[in-house]
Amino acid sequence: MKNTARKLLILLAGSFLTAAAWAAPTLIGGTASGVAGSTVPLTISFNAGSSNVAGVSFRLTLPAGLSPASTMATMVTPGAILGAGAANKVVVSSFSPVCDNTINYPAGTLSCSTLPPANTWNFLVVGPYSPPPATGTCSGTVLCGNANLINGGTTSATLMTVMVTIAPGAPTGALSVPISNAVYVDNTNTTGVSDIVTGGTSTPGTVNVTQFSPCDVNHDNSTDLLDIIAEVLQILGKKPCTTGDILKDGCTGTDLSRIVNSALGINGGICVAP
User: Fold this and answer.
1) How many domains, the chain?
2) Residue 91's beta-bridge partner residues?
3) Percentage with pLDDT > 90 across the chain
4) Residue 207 burial class via C-beta count within 10 angstroms: exposed 0-12, middle 13-18, buried 19 and up
C-alpha cells in the first residue's frame, strides 16, 4: 500500500514538473499615455514560452475614444524579433469591417468570409510572401510564409508597435485594449499544414488619457520656450487670453513666472497652478 502511494506521488510530481516546464505562448499589451487628440505608441509583446511559434494572428478591440492612426505607413512598426536578421516576418493588418484572419496570395492581403465585430483591428505575422508554394505554407485561417521561429525563448520581446489616436474630447482615464482571437502556429509543416499551438491568456493593453499641463500653453505636450512666447503674446493682448490664464484671474506676469519655472525644471518641472 505504501509503495502504491509512493508511486502515485511520484507520478503526480512528474506531471506537475512537466506542466511547469512547458509554457504556452502569450501576447502582452503595453501601456501608453497621451492627451485627447494625440496619437500614442502602444506596444504588443510576445513570449513564445517553450513553444515553437512561426506565425501569429490576433485581434485588438479598440474601445470608444480610440482608433488606428490615420497614416498607414507608420500605423504598425514590426519589432526587432521580426526583422531580416531574426524571424524575417512581415505584419499584415486591417481595421474592421474590412478583413478577417484569412490570407490571399500573392499580395498577402486580408479578406473576410464573415465580418469581424466593429472597432476590431486584425493582425497577421507571417513570412515574406512569395508565389505559392511558399516555404512552410498553411491553409484555412492559419498563417503562411517562411518557417522561421519567432522569439524562440522564454523572454518577452516587442512583437510590434501600433499607433493609436485618442479622440478629441475623450475623457481622462484608462482605456483597456483587449487582445483576442490569438492563433499560434508552429513550423512542423509535416503534411503541408502547420499545427496550431495552444496559447495562454493574453494581457490587454492600456491607453491612459491624460490632461495637458496648465503650463503647456500651446498644447504640444511639453513646456518650453514656445509656451513662454505664447504666454507673453496673451499678456500683451496680441492673442486672446485663453490657455495662458493659469491662475484664472487673467493673463498676468504671475502666470508667466509659473510657466518659466516649469520650463526650467524648477520643482521638478511641475506647473504650480490652482
Assistant:
1) 2
2) 125
3) 42
4) buried
